[in-house]
Amino acid sequence: MLRETMALTVRELKHWYRVKVQVFMTMMMPLVWLGLFGQAFRLEELAMGPGIPPDMVQNLFAGAPNYFSFMAIGMLCVMVLFTCMFSGMSVVWDRRFGFLTKLQVAPIPRGIIPMSRVLSSVTRALIQSLIIFIIALAFAFIPGLVGLELGSGFGIIELLLMVVILALLALGFAAIFTTIALTIENQETLIGVINLLNLPIMFASAALFPTSFMPDWLRSVANLNPITWAADGIRQLVFEDPQPIYDLPVDILGLVVFAGAFLLLGWFLARRVLNR
Question: What is the mean pLDDT of residues 2-17?
């Protein structure tokens, strides 16, 4: 089963990196988001002035030294969402061109068909997130721009934990959108579902703005959003004096449950749908 899963996963990755335009967009999208959105909004300047305590910015932005650092961590999680929400698109295309029918008659477990899509999406999401992380750090060396500022305690262990958190987030979202794609016959409907879900999931989270800025009802929703758990956990690893919503183990446990639940759902739904 492992060999079949890897073969299908490699097939999905080849479809990605052999299309040069997709690789180019993978490189450019983070640069556009961080360069335009990140550098345009310097909300920390609104909190600075005479009589304002110097630690006011850190209090507002979960311990981040400036808004760009806060937003850059959130963008890692948002890019995971944006990458994984198209994880089911290949299922629709394979159904349209008949390749899915060939897989259905092959002597392989049905669950590995969506699992291969999930693993390829997780790989692409991690690559793109690490690109964002490097670009955000590099901005600090460009005159006139604000860059991501790491705490003195950030090291290889914190970096690995950050990758684990992003991988759990990617597993959950890729499983959700692949499961949705299994029940949808055409790409237009799938794109409509993606457009319906992506912005509410992004803005109802702590990715771009602290939940303390939100009204009570939206804060309650945002605190249950997996993007909030991932961003909150990574900020505790990255910043010098973090001010978390939850403790780090709670964030990771929430992501483990989120990823595990939707992976199991996708596995069982695939067996039911693809055995028809």
Answer: 78
CA distance 12 to 86: 12
Confidence class of residue 62 from pLDDT cuts 50, 70 and 90?
confident
pLDDT at 256: 96
Query: How many angstroms separate the Cα of 60 from the Cα of each of 44, 45, 210?
Result: 9, 12, 7
Rounded to an integer, what distance in angstroms lies between the CA atom of residue 119 and that of residue 128?
Answer: 14
Q: Terminal CA-to-CA distance of the chain, rounded, Å?
A: 21
Closest CA to 124 of 179, 82, 71: 82
pLDDT digits (tens, 9 = 90+) for 101-115: 777 777 777 777 888
Give the separation between CA 48 and CA 44, rounded to whole angstroms. 7
pLDDT digits (tens, 9 = 90+) for 247-275: 999 999 999 999 999 888 887 887 777 66
Alpha helices in the chain (DSSP H): 2-17, 20-32, 39-40, 56-60, 67-84, 89-97, 99-105, 112-138, 156-182, 187-203, 216-222, 226-238, 248-274
Cβ atoms 262, 179 nearer than 8 A = yes
Mean pLDDT (whole number) for 56-72:
80
In this structure, what token pair is assigned to residue 223?
């605190």
Q: How far apart are CA 47 and CA 3, in angstroms?
A: 55
- Residue 108, token pair as written in the block: 């392989």
More confident residue, 81 or 38: 81
CB atoms within 10 A of CB 70: 30
Whole-angstrom distance, CA of residue 177 vs CA of residue 189:
12
